[in-house]
Amino acid sequence: MPSLDLSTSTLFAGLIFSTLGGVAWIYGKKTQAARPMMVGAALVGAPFVLDGVPLWGVGAVLTLLIFWP
């Protein structure tokens, strides 16, 4: 559970990964592709359960999974 660390880094990471997740989810819904939808949902939800360095790491890995063939 996050310690409610509202640092600039955590807020910025949450904004970036939530936006990327929303775009991935919309793309997956339009193309009927399950993987972008699932990864997008995970990206949107990650800032709610992670903060700081783990958020950056998980967000980066999930973002790479969107584009992985």
Can you offer a commentary on this structure?
The protein contains 3 helices and no strands. It is mostly helical. It has one domain. Helix 1 (8-31) runs parallel beside helix 3. The model has no long low-confidence stretch (mean pLDDT 91).
Termini, distance in Å? 32 Å
**Biggest beta sheet attributes:** none
Rounded to an integer in angstroms, the radius of gyration calculated over CA atoms is 12 Å
Quickly give the structural class: mainly alpha
Helix content: over 70%
Strand percent estimate: under 5%
Helical stretch tally: 3
- What order do the SSEs take from the amino end to the carboxyl end, as H and E? HHH
> What is the number of E strands?
0
pLDDT < 50 stretches? none
Tell me, rounded to a whole number, the average pLDDT: 91
Q: Which of globular, elongated, flat, extended, rod-shaped describes the shape?
A: elongated
What is the count of structural domains? 1
Short description:
Helices cover 80% and strands 0% of the residues. It is mainly α and 69 residues long.
Question: Which structural traits does this protein have?
Answer:
single chain; 69 residues; mainly alpha; 3 helices; 80% helix; elongated
List the helices and strands and how they pair.
Blueprint: H1 8-31, H2 34-49, H3 53-67
Helix pairs in contact: 1-2, 1-3, 2-3
